[in-house]
Structure formats: C-alpha cells, structure tokens
Amino acid sequence: DLVEQSKRSAAFAAVDKHVLPSVRVLGIGSGSTVVYAVDRLLELKNNNQLNPKLVCVPTSFQSKQLIADAGLQAADLDDLPILDDAQGGFTSIDVTIDGADEVDSELNAIKGGGGAHLREKLVANASNKLVLIADYRKDSQVLGEKWSKGIPVEVSPLAWRTITRQLEHMPCMQKGSRLFEDEHPVANLRQAVRKAGPVVTDNGNFILDVCVGNIYDPPAVERLFKMIPGVIEVGIFSNMASEAWFGNSDGSIVCRI
Ligand code: DER
Questions:
Q1: Which residue among the candidates 102, 120, 222, 233 is catalytic per the annotation?
Q2: Can you tell which superkingdom this protein's organism belongs to (predicted)?
C-alpha cells in the first residue's frame, strides 16, 4: 500500500546515501520504517557492498532482532571506542538511521510512538549523524500538526500519577512566548494491547503520552518536561537530526536537511 511503499522508498534512499563501505558503526532505530532499512542493508550485504567490519548498534529488543535476523553483527553502545575527538570526543557511531512519528521544518522530531525513544536518543546522541526516515504522514511544518497521539514521555512507574498531574499543570507560556498550543495538556498512561495493564518499556518503565497540541518551541518543551523528577526521557529530539527522508504518496522521495 502507499504508506508502506513510501516508507520503503525513504528507507532505501537513506541507506544508499549513507551506508557506504566506509561506514564501520551504524545505529539502527526502532519501529516499522527501519525494517525496510534493514532489508536494504541485507541486499547490500549480499552484494558485498557493506564494510566487512560493519557493526550495528540496536535501540530496542526489536532492532536487535532485526540486526540478528539479517545476519549483521550487533554491538553495545558502551563497548565501542570513540571515533575522534574532533566530534566532541564522545561519539562512537558513524551514522544512525531511525524512524520518526513527526518531523518539523527545523528537523525537530517527535519519537517514541513505538516506545523505544530512550535507547534511540542514547544512540542518536552518540552518533556523528542522525538520519530520519518516514512516510509522508510524518512530514510537518510544526510538531503536533499531524501527530495527535501526544509526546511520548518515559517515566518511572514509582511516580507516574504524580508526574501525570505535574505534566497536566505545565505552563504553556514561558517568558511571554507560547511553547505549545493547549492551555490544559492531557497526559495518558499508555495501555498495552496484547497484555493487561500499561505498556512496560524495554527498560522497565511506563510511558505517558502528553497531548499539548502544536509545539511551537520543541527544545523548550523537551527541557521543561525533562526537568520533572521521574521523567526518564522525552520523545522530542530537538536539533539532533541532520537529515530527514520522506517517501511521498506519488512515489517520489524528498530529503530535508
Ligand atoms: O518509537 C520510535 O521512536 C519509532 O522510531 C517511531 O518514532 C517511528 O516508528 P514507525 O517507523 O513505525 O512509524
């Protein structure tokens, strides 16, 4: 169908552009779009177009399974040496390819629709380059325009009710400027579908999906939410991605840098 085809087009184009034989360490995101990216990696591997020493860094149980099923070598983030001091002295991954729930005109992204954003942000942070891949439904000017399920926020199960209340009392204005649209945010505990009770992340935490309407200042909202005790990671990736590849419904591909 059109959406899956557009995911696949974006994924193949991004892998072909970035996973050159010179790439030694590749971060693999989570979700349904990166499945196509790994499909393309397998094709390149079978055509001997990958670095024979390539290692892939997973961002979830799901992505570790994708890596293993493709016969690629997995590596743990902290077992990797730093690449070079020029990049700030802490990055160990050449490039990470990951999906997104929505991307704005400045390449800020909402992530965490698949509940993997903590490890995804750890891997993205350790990468010299973060390349997002998505179908046309994720291509927005302002975060919140199209993604209506809220900002995924990973929280400690010990205080999720208290954190819910605190999130729902977050001021939408700061120093005279509006950070997000809704005066009264709503934070919903993400319930599991194939398990009774709430979703429990790979890290043993809960997820609150926080609906705030449009997000006019993603970095400020990310900082504001992150300061709440018990918030473990916020599904806003501000100023992290260097490119976003979108598959369009007409089969064309667009890359936003
Ligand atoms: O959970 C995540 O962060 C995923 O990367 C999500 O943002 C994208 O998942 P999708 O490719 O299935 O839309």
A1: 120
A2: Eukaryota
